[in-house]
Structures are given as structure tokens and as C-alpha cells.
Design a protein that fits this description.
Blueprint: H1 2-40, E1 46-52, E2 60-66, E3 72-79, H2 93-96
Antiparallel strand pairs: 1-2, 2-3
Length: 98
């Protein structure tokens, strides 16, 4: 019985930490994704961030541009703890779809 109580207490200590880390990472991914979508897809209607454990670049956050038709395009893989994008080269008009 004591082991069960200890496991429940340990879970109660760890769960808020995990939820807090997830919340901070999601907010950082959203902010970084806005920058990526603005720079690389001028015609996007919005953006979507998601965490993927089995992404091609390894586990981490993905940034997708959402078109007006509802389709989405992968713009960036941002890693486990996304940060503000570093200065990146400006895309040519052909790359932006203009």
C-alpha cells in the first residue's frame, strides 16, 4: 500500500513539471512558426504547430503553413525546444510562389 501512495505522490510531483515544459515549448513553437510562415509563405492563411515523435529529422516540433483551402505545407522542423529563428536568407520570388 505504501508503494502505491509513493508512486501516486511522485506522479503528482512530476506531472506539473511535464505540463509546464510542454506549455512553454508550445508557446515558443507558435512564436517561431509565425516568423517562418511570414518569411517563407506569403500566401498562407495561418499556421499550425505540432509535436511529432517520429519526424524525419527526429522528434520535435513541426511548423506548417495552412492555405486558404485547408491544406498544409511543412515549413520547418524546429526541434524539441524551439527558439527564435536565426537570421535566414531571404527567399527569391520563385521560392515564395510569387
Amino acid at each position: 500500500m505504501l508503494r502505491i501512495v509513493v508512486l501516486i505522490a511522485l506522479g503528482a510531483l512530476v506531472l506539473p513539471l511535464v505540463l509546464s515544459i510542454f506549455s512553454v515549448a508550445k508557446a515558443a513553437a507558435d512564436r517561431a512558426c509565425v516568423v517562418y510562415v511570414t518569411a517563407y509563405d506569403a500566401n498562407a492563411a495561418g499556421f499550425r504547430t505540432s509535436f511529432d515523435l517520429f519526424a524525419p529529422g527526429g522528434p520535435g516540433w513541426e511548423c506548417r503553413a495552412v492555405s486558404t483551402g485547408g491544406g498544409d505545407t511543412l515549413i520547418a522542423e524546429m526541434g524539441l525546444l524551439p527558439a527564435a529563428p536565426r537570421q535566414f536568407p531571404q527567399p527569391s520570388p520563385e521560392e515564395r510562389g510569387a
